[in-house]
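Hi again,

Forgot to attach this to my earlier email, sorry! This is the prediction with zinc ion bound. I've pasted everything inline since the attachment limit keeps bouncing my files.
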Amino acid sequence: MLTSTKELLEAAQKQSYAVGAFNMYNLEGAKAVVNAAEAENSPAMFQILPNVLNYGGSALIAMFLEAADSAKVPMSVHLDHCDDRAMIGTALEAGIQSILADGSTLSFQDNLAFTQEMTDFAHAKGSTVEAEVGRISGTEDGMTVAEKEAKMTDPEEAKEFVAKSGVDFLAVTIGNVHGKYHGEPQLDFDRLAKIREKLQIPLVLHGASGLPATMIQQSIELGVCKFNVNSEVRKTYLAFWREYGRTESKSDLLDCQKSATAAMQEVIAEKMRLFGSAGKA
Ligand SMILES: [Zn+2]
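C-alpha cells for the complex follow:
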C-alpha cells in the first residue's frame, strides 16, 4: 500500500530499524522489491534516478506507484539525487512521495536556497524532502584524508541547514561512497553521533551496498532510518543477463524476466533482514 515516506521513516526511527530504498529501473526491479517486501513482511521504498526517469517518463513513475500501492506492505516512491527543478515538478505532479533535492554540488548557501525552495514546493504537494549536506563521492580513489573530510557532513552546518530549509530527512556523508568500496569501508561514527545529537529527523545513508553488518547496525543505532541500495542489486541483474548472453540456455524471454527478478529478490530480501525491517510491515 502506498504510504508516505515520512510515515515509513518515522516508524523505523521509533523502532530502531532502517528502511531499504532500492534504486530500480524497470518492471523486473519493481516486482523484485515487492516480492521481497511481501515475503519478508517488510516496508520498502522504490527510488528512481533522474536519468532513469528521463528515459521512462511518466509511464515509469505510474508503474512504480501502482506496484507500491498494490503491494501488501507499506511502500513509497522516491526521486533520488535530483538538482533539476522541472524534473522535481514532474515527479511531484505524478504523485511521488518524496524527493532528494540534491544541491550538494553547490556552495552551502546556494544548496540551502535551492533546498528551501524545493521543500516549500514539495510540502505544498504533500510530499517530503531529503537533502544532502556534504558531498557523497563516487569513489575515494586518490583523495587525501583532508579532501575526504572536507566532503563530510559538518554537524553544525547540518543543524543550521535543517533548521533553515525545513527538510524532513538528511543524507549524511561520513565516509560512505556510491558504488564499490576499495578496501574496508571507513565510516566516521563519531561524526554521525555528533550529527545525531543535533538533529531529531531521520538520517539517510547512501552507498549501503558492501557495508558489513556491524556498520549497518551501528548506523541504525546512531539514527540512520534509510539505506540506499543500488550497486549490489544492479550487478546481480546484469550478471544474470551476462550469463544468459553467454549460454543462451533459455529462449523464453518471460522465463528470463522471472529468473532475473528472482535473483534480485534474493539480494533485496537479505538487505531487509540486515536493516531490521523484515517483520516490521
Ligand atoms: Zn546516493
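The chain has a mean pLDDT of 93. The chain has eleven helices and eight strands.

That should be everything now.

G.
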